[in-house]
Each structure stands twice: as C-alpha cells, then as structure tokens.
Amino acid sequence: MRGDGLGKFRREQRMLARVRRVAWRLEQAEKKRNWALASARAGGVSVRKAAEAAGLSPTRVHQLTKDVSAQMLEALLAELRAVGWPAPEDPDGSADEELSGRADVAGRLVDEVGWIRQCAEWIDHLERESYPLVVNLRPEADFPDRHPVVVDLPRVAAVLRRIAYDVDELARARSTEDLDRAHTRHDPQAERRRRLAEPDLTFAEFCARTGTPSQSIRQGADAWTGYQAERRHRGETDEDPCTAYNPFRDAMP
C-alpha cells in the first residue's frame, strides 16, 4: 500500500508540473499576442482587422491596446526575451532570410517549427477544400519570376520527412558548421527547393511529364532546349536554353 501511495503521489506531482508548464506557456503566449496586437495597432492596422486575425472581438482588442505606449511595447518584448520566449518575426523581413542560413542551431530549429506549422496549415486546407494549394518554388527575391507548384499530400509528407531529417541532425550538432545534409545551400534558389522537398528536374522526368518526344536527334535537341527552359523557369539555372550546352545538337551532322 505504501508503494501504491508513493506512486500515486509521484504521478500527481508530474501532472501538476505539466499543468504549471502549460499555464506558463499560455501566459507567455498571451503576452506575445498582446504585444503583436499593440504593435499592429501602432503600425496602422485597424482594430477590426487585428481582431479578425486574433480571433477576438474588436472591443477586446481596443481594451488590450488603447493605452499601450512604445515604452510599454519594448518592456513587454524584454519580458519575453528574458524568459527565452522566441522573438517575434520582423514584419518588414522576408521569407528569404532563412534561405541564407542562420548563425546558430537554435535559429534553424525555429525555422523548422515554422515549416511544421506551414505543413499543418496545408493539411487543414486539403482536409477542408476540394482543391490543392499552390506555392512558389522560387524565393521572394526572384519576383516577378515565379514557378508555382501544387501542394498535395505527397508533397506535405515529403516536406515533413525533410524536416525530420534536418531536425535529427540539428539535435546532434554543436553548431551550424557541423551540419551535413541539413546544411544551408549557398544558392537561395536551391535551398528553397530543398526546403520544399523538390528534387532537381531530370531530362527523363521532363520528357515523361510533358510527353515530349526525344527518339531522334532532332527531337532530342528540341526536347533538351525545352528541358533547359523549364530548369531556368524553376530557378535551377540562369543559362539561355537556346545557347546552353545541348548534347543532341552537338551530335547533329
């Protein structure tokens, strides 16, 4: 009986510790929400739009933000930083920042958390809607050049596997210099494709997907030009498809 009582006590303590952790996280999350709302209002966002984004009533948002000054915003942000809460993202920043690499492993892990949230949003969409989403395979910096790709369940699964491989390596690395497979590519375009689990396009895949014939040398030369044009559109190369190396053209009499 004594052993049963000790086990019950320990189990109760673990459950209470879990409640305290969740309560603390909720408190910090509410602080971050209030900071984000006040920052949005200070940046000119209307109460109605801020309320819609936060899932609150306009009256509640007005109550939370009406008397917040710039000094109070900075103090609230300092509290979050003091307890190690992730820093809010910069609204003037770019999604391309992660493609250039992070200075430390913690920064990379925060990026991967963002990708997990993105995958969850994709799954929610695929569950609710009858049509898939489309994302840009190229970085924002390439605008106006874009290459849309469909986000279906196989892609979501591939991205989640990529995240798992990266996080597994990040968990064992002392610094970003120790990374191998999860190391950030020097080319932001290549890194964007890697994050989206998009392999480089092969000639055989291009011909099969587009139905482009390549049996004769002439057909092969035309197919290769189309293949290089597709690679350029995807951001895999900057070469002009008409002047780039073409093994079929070189073999023509």
Written account of the structure:
60% of the residues lie in helices and 3% in strands. With 253 residues, the chain is mainly α. Strands 1-2 form a two-stranded antiparallel ribbon. Helix 1 (2-42) packs antiparallel against helix 2 and helix 1 (2-42) runs antiparallel to helix 4. The longest helix is centred in the N-terminal third of the chain and has 41 residues, at 2-42. The chain is elongated, with a radius of gyration of 25 Å.
Quick gist of this model?
The protein is mainly alpha-helical and 253 residues long. The chain contains ten helices and two strands, in the order H-H-H-H-H-E-E-H-H-H-H-H. Helix 1 (2-42) runs antiparallel to helix 4 and helix 2 crosses helix 3 (58-65).
Which H/E pattern describes the elements? HHHHHEEHHHHH
Helix content: 55-70%
Average pLDDT level: 85
Point out poorly predicted stretches: none
Classify the secondary structure makeup into a structural class.
mainly alpha
Binned strand content: under 5%
Whole-angstrom Rg: 25 Å
Number of helices: 10
* Arrangement of strands in the largest sheet: 1-2
Bulk shape = elongated
Number of strands: 2
The largest sheet is: 2 strands, antiparallel
End-to-end separation in angstroms reads: 94 Å
